[in-house]
Structure formats: structure tokens, C-alpha cells
Amino acid sequence: MLLNFFPSRQLTFYIGKMFAVRIIAVLAMLVLVLMMLDLLSRTGDILAYAGNGEAELLQYASLRMPQLVKRFLPYSVLLATIITLATLNQNSEVTAMKAAGLSAHQILAPLLLVAVVVAGASFAFNERVVTRATATLKAWERVDYGPIPTDPDIRTNVYFNDGNDVLMARELSGQGADTVLTGVTFYERDDAGMIARQITGSRATYANPGWLLEDAQIFSVATTQTVSADGPLLVAPGTTLDQVALRRVDADAETLAQLADSIAALKAAGRRTAELEGRWWAKISGPLSAILMPLLGAVAGFGLARSGNLFIRAVIGMALGFAYFVVENAALAMGSFGGYPPLLAAWSPFVLFLLVGETVLIRTEE
């Protein structure tokens, strides 16, 4: 009974191959165009660092392209669906298949099969390639496209809140109690949010609580005078290492297993993890969105091509597909703010548009 869902072997291979070729072509076109536009905006920043040249531009492209593939693969599946079905419809191949007794779902079955393979490949690609490229690219951007730090624990331009006060550092290194800040600036603010004192220092170590700042220079806004501290000065007593751990978590740069471990650690520390949980689920639901695209774009493949409505049906298919991406991003944003539970934020758009696509297909073609 399951095999009856597909048309013949030859027809399944014919439609599936046509669909796969168009996915690759559309994806290559989108990625190359967007990569060129991205390089136009980033070339100046990359070459601004002394010694950078063509090799660094190629390195940036190699790190950026996996991110573009991840982001635009579902769009490519949607556009390939519309192009494939519109071509079949315009050549009366859909009419021939329906005259042979195939249902709309059977005609779509090869596309759905290819979409399942694409979803699986997308998930593996995101886990194995995109996360590593993202982590490397962000580390490179933090040092203004200079030499990438060999220590993965080193981060630049970090800040922590201590009530109204703000602690900033040019660089953070080490882990746990051995965490060290260099190039430190601490802003003491009053109740109105205005800066009362600015304290700078060359280095700060974790004092549990707070940070011991060395070579402290204290500038008072009221007196406009700068004085030197007699010894190490304790600043930001309200900051904890939990804040350091929280700011280390980058969902885009961590695999599914790594992100699960990070969420568990933050939960144990009593930190809010709703946003990260939503991103964890999105790592699964995101690649699966490729399976929805043949269903949402199916409206372009049916109806009489000679009636002049083929273009309108293609536009409707594109509108349904892009509406899914808009709703998905909105749901994830609502989940980040606590408006939706993380599981609902990640999966409700998928289920909603699965029902919408099935409804449109059944009421118009079945």
C-alpha cells in the first residue's frame, strides 16, 4: 500500500531528478549572488587589517557560504517546487498523469521523497559544517579579521551588568574561577542611569564575588579628576560566573548535543533558557521545513495552464511558502520573549502550514 503512494519507478525517477536538479541550480544561484553582495559590504573591513589580502577574502567566503546555504536551502526547495510543477503543468504532463489515474498526492510524492532527503542532508550539514564555520567566523570578526585566537575560550569585547553598573573588557580568557579580564572598564551609574565614576584597569581576576581590578584608575564625573587606587580594587560585586557561562552560549555555533548540555548547565544555575530551548527545537524543525515546500508550492502545478492562471497560481504558492517563513520567525521571536513555550514556538508554524497545504491541495485538486 505504501508503494502505491508513488507513481511508477520511471516517473518517480523522472520527477525526482528534475526536482533535485532545480534545487541545486536555484540554491547555487542564490548563494553566489548573495555571497557577492556580502563580499562587497565586508571587503573593506577585511582588508582594513594590515596584511590581509585575497587569501583572507577567500577564507571569509568559505566560512560565510555554509551560513547562506543553511538559510536559503528551504527557499530554494520552494522555488524549485514552483518551477518544477509549473513546467510539468505548462507541458501538459500533469494533465497526462491525472488522466492516467494519478492523484495530486501521487504526483507530489517524488518531490516529497527528494525533500525528505534534502531535510536529512540539511540537518547533517548544519551540525557538522555550519556550526564550526559559524564559530570560526564569529571568533574572526571579534578580532576585526586579524589572527584568530588559538584558544577557543578567548572572547573579545565582553560586558556584564551589575544592576545599573556595567563592566566591560577588551578580552576574556580562561574558565571558571580562573577567568581573567584584560582591558577592563567599569562604569558606576546613579539611579537616573548617569555615569558617576569610570574605573579602568589593565587586568581583573574573579574574586567570588566581583572582580579584583589591577592598576585601577578612578575618574569621577563630579570632580573631573582621576586618581590611582592604592592596590587591587573590587568592582562589580554583583556579577557571577553564571553570567560568563550564559554569554558563552551561541546556539548557531553549537551542535544539538552541545546546546542541550549548555541548556542543562544554565538550568542548574537557575538561568532562563526559553530562548535557547526554542533554538534547540528549531535545529530540528528548521531542516524539516524543506518537506513542507512541495506541499505549499503544489498549487502552482495544477489547474489548466491555458486558462492564464498559471502565473497567479505560482504567486500563490510563493506567498504560502514565504508566509511560513514569516510566521516561523515570528513564533521563534515570541518564544524568545516567553510568549510561547519553546516547543510550541518551534513546531506550531510547521503543523499549521502542513494543515494549510493539505487543505488547499485537497479542496482544489482531490
TrEMBL record:
Localization terms from the record: Cell membrane
Pfam families assigned: LptF_LptG (PF03739)
Keyword Transmembrane: yes
Record's keyword annotation contains Isomerase: no
Keyword field: Cell membrane, Membrane, Transmembrane, Transmembrane helix
Transmembrane spans: 20-40, 72-88, 108-125, 310-327, 339-362
Bilayer topology term: Multi-pass membrane protein
Predominant place of localization: membrane
Protein name from the UniProt record: LPS export ABC transporter permease LptG
Organism: Alteraurantiacibacter lauratis
